[in-house]
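Propose amino acids for all 468 sites.
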């Protein structure tokens, strides 16, 4: 049986390798030139987590088994670490050079619900991470589950009575006159901070790769992150293909895919249903953002975003800039906003060569397209995070060209809110698009902003339908 499993795994990895080829086809007929990301490469070595003491019974903690398996692969020069069907609880996992973490169908890699298992040097760390590595991957048909319910606060007005009672049955702490539940003083797991709000600040991410080259994430399902799901930061040569990212719609800060100061990236064929932003571009705030540089040469194509605060998002922080980004052939269905551009003084930078086309939207809660330059982040249980009073690092939402958007259902089509007396939103074009909206005024652009709209149609229930 073991030999058969090994052969089947080898066959699956061969098929995966073959399917990973041909990404050049996405780079035809682009409005700007950009390089095809280099694909991560791995030796043929294959090891199984169970050979290093792994137990997929949903009870055993497998942190040590993953450490041993990764160390063994590292000595071989890299290869594929296979996780077969089962539920594998684990603490922190750190990938090394030339290693592919491969989850077979039926495999669930689950973050331990004991938050102490995610401490490193007294601070929380990302569940699966890699830093300054080359050729790293997470592939397969399995699931990575962050056990986010043990980390996330819950707002009473965002859950049903049944859900609220289920959270309280875990223990926890209710504050703000019954408006907010924190997973603090849970029945079965210890606290890792001195108060609910201090523990809230320690929420960690599901997967974060930092300063890595040739990153490949394909096929797996990411769900229930304590905070964000997938964050490549200052990485280059990144391909994200065929993921499913899902968490409750009301998960606080439940971003799906966040790219930060990354270069040469392809995001394709993914399905997102998240509690915050869907596919988001960031590039740091202030001087640190400038130091790390822009998000550059990014192609986002053939993705579907269901619930999210925004389908495609730039911001809120991007002082390093945004350059050479193409977003095309995507579907946003049920998002709060479709195309969302958000920032504030102290966080902004400059956009250059942003082309967005062939976007289909349905059932958008608020605006189909929104530009906002006074964005404030409000953490659960806290007051608005104030933006900088000084007019430094202003956002420049410019050189953004949007065409062929079809939107059925939104409050408004386009909203632009700039900074008083400043030129922050300009050089925006929208053409060849159709919007079916609810409010009588489809476009609201303030006196500080400039949006050029041509050859586009706006309709409400009171608009006569013609075939002209």
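Proposal:
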């Amino acid at each position: 049986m073991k030999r058969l499993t090994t052969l089947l795994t080898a066959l699956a990895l061969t098929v995966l390798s073959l399917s990973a080829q041909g990404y050049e086809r996405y780079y035809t007929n682009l409005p700007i030139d950009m390089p095809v990301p280099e694909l991560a490469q791995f030796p043929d070595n294959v090891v199984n987590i169970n050979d290093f003491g792994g137990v997929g019974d949903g009870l055993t903690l497998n942190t040590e088994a993953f450490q041993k398996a990764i160390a063994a692969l590292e000595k071989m020069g890299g290869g594929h670490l296979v996780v077969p069907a089962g539920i594998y609880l684990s603490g922190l996992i750190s990938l090394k050079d030339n290693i592919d973490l491969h989850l077979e169908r039926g495999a669930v890699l689950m973050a331990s619900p004991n938050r102490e298992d995610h401490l490193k040097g007294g601070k929380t760390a990302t569940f699966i991470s890699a830093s300054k590595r080359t050729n790293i991957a997470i592939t397969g048909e399995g699931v990575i589950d962050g056990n986010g319910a043990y980390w996330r606060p819950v707002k009473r007005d965002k859950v049903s009575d049944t859900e609220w009672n289920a959270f309280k049955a875990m223990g926890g702490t209710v504050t703000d006159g019954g408006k907010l539940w924190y997973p603090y003083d849970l029945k079965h797991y210890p606290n890792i901070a001195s108060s609910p709000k201090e523990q809230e600040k320690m929420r960690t991410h599901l997967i974060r790769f930092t300063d890595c080259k040739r990153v490949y994430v394909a096929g797996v399902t990411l769900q229930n992150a304590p905070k964000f799901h997938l964050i490549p930061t200052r990485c280059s040569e990144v391909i994200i293909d065929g993921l499913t990212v899902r968490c409750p719609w009301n998960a606080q800060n439940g971003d799906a895919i966040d790219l930060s100061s990354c270069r040469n990236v392809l995001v394709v064929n993914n399905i997102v249903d998240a509690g915050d932003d869907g596919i988001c571009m960031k590039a740091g705030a202030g001087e640190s953002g400038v130091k790390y540089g822009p998000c550059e040469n990014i192609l986002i194509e053939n993705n579907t975003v269901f619930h999210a605060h925004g389908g495609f998002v730039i911001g809120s922080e991007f002082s390093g800039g945004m350059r050479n980004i193409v977003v095309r052939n995507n579907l946003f269905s049920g998002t709060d906003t479709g195309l969302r551009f958000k920032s504030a003084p102290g966080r902004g930078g400059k956009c250059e060569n942003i082309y967005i086309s062939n976007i289909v939207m349905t059932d958008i809660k608020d605006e189909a397209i929104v530009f906002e330059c006074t964005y404030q982040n409000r953490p659960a249980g806290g007051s608005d995070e104030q933006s900088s009073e000084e007019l430094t690092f202003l956002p420049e939402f410019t050189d953004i060209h949007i065409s062929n958007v079809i939107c059925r259902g939104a409050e408004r089509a386009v909203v632009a809110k700039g900074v008083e007396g400043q030129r922050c939103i300009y050089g925006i074009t929208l053409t060849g698009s159709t919007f079916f909206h609810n409010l009588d005024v489809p476009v609201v652009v303030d006196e500080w902003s400039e949006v050029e709209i041509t050859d586009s149609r706006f309709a409400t229930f009171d608009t006569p339908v013609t075939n002209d």
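The longest helix spans residues 2-19. Residues 153-202 form one domain.
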